Amino acid sequence: MIKIFLSYSLCLTLLAGSPALARTAARFNHSPFQPVVNETIRAVAENASPAKDNSVQILNNGKEALRLRVHLIRHATKRIDIQTFIWTNDEVGRFMMYELIEAAKRGVNVRILADHFVSHRDPEIIAFLATAHSNLKIKHYRPAAGQIKPSKISVFLKTLFQFKALNQRMHNKVMIVDGVAAVTGGRNIENTYYNLSTELNFKDRDIFVIGPVVEQIARSFNAFWSFKHSVASQELKDVAAIIKQNDFNRYDTCESFYTGGLCENTAKYPDSDPAIQNIADRMIRVKHVEFIADNPGKNRALWLRGNGAMTKRLMQILQKAEKEIIVQSPYFVLNNAARKFFEKVKKNRPDLHMVVSTNSFGSTDNTAAYSANYRLRSCYIEALALDVFEYMPHPGNLADVFPSFPEMAARAAGKIRNGEQTRKPFLCIHAKSLVVDDHIACIGSYNLDPRSQNLNSEVGLIIEDERVAKMLKADILKDCRPENSWVIARKKLPLSADTLNGLIEGLMRLSPVDLWPIRNTSSFALRTGKAPVAPDHPEFYINYEDVGSFPGSPPGLSPKEITTRIYKAVGGMATPLL
Length: 578
Hints:
By secondary structure, the chain is of the alpha+beta class. The chain is about 40% helix and about 20% strand.
């Protein structure tokens, strides 16, 4: 307690001429993060390096991630900046917006920048938000035809004449509070990212940081905010027309936002909320932190290529790997350039161990991307020698990673009876992370696919610290355990047919059409009572059972499996867009 008091006194002395930062410190005095915030303010006042004096914590639990966001919003005194790929008009989306409007009412400047592609597009709702409070400002990244809800013909013309511009999206996920605290990672603003969906729920990951590096994150946000293709709500034609008519619903109370009980459950969160205190207690002062962000617009390369700052920095890190690379990515699609890159890395380090955790057929939310993975994964196993694990929709540790499953399953049962949905709640990996040589960790928005490589703008926090790397590695490898994932390995084909089949698969990869029905690889599950072994172990086929190419699918030939096979056959040309 004495140490905290002295630290706070020092901060006030250093910041006598900085009322804005002093107000920030005063507000966070009522938060468990107050000591770390005070240290950050002191470091900034002393012009410390952005790479030093930063504290971080990994957020794996969806409900914990939501509670932290609410806590930060309620403790903001100066500014809240939010950048997101998706903002959905569901319970979480409406609750977050309510909290941000309340922050605006108490004098906090709130700026929201959402990508237009898959975010909410109701002109009346956007008109209300655009006029809710003068302290709340909302912009939309690359809205088509200057409207929040463009016509189909407008989108068609945009696709026809500005194909790359339409496909270049802002995939960044960032929340910055008062210039000292930030959250980045994979989570957007939607029920599915916070374990509150009755069907698809994302197993995602954020990194929470307090420290001087937040200034760099804020600088990136400002660049996107002032980008020529970031358009304010009231400048959109259809929204402007509704505002002029002044005929739209307004919402004043949390209950009127229809938040599905979130108001009642969170309104009484005290400053001493155990969940927030737990995060504060786990904060780690790390050795070195680096924030990487693509420029607005990504790059100016021709067609659907060109890389970006995030791609180039990750390549630099991966090239220096000596012993091990562990990757978790919901979509694992390596185009020709990426495959050549990893072939070169493996050639330089033949003993390099590479582990990939990704989605299975049963857990994926993107059938097109999975079909590309299915088409290419023999190459991943045979040419690149990757250890690939595909996550189960209902893993063995479901109760630990999805504690609200019973509640969501109960709600889902009624929806299934009413024909509103077809599946009970399930998990889908959405975390984008990697660990290199047990000392470098990266958490951000970057998928290991061509879109993140060349089209979408991405961000990420790179942490050089053995403790964080060890924690992240353990998280990913837990998802790779036999009870949680199927392992991808070579099939046991008769008469050494795998050699000929591999040759045919290789030829098909060079063609835009792949009609060959047989793959050299399949999904395998550990047999009851057997010990886990690597796919190259002599007892692998004794210990593991081949469960087919599409485990987790319903009996028979499902529409999803048919779609996957069609995409696999004719989707080669679409790989740059996946």
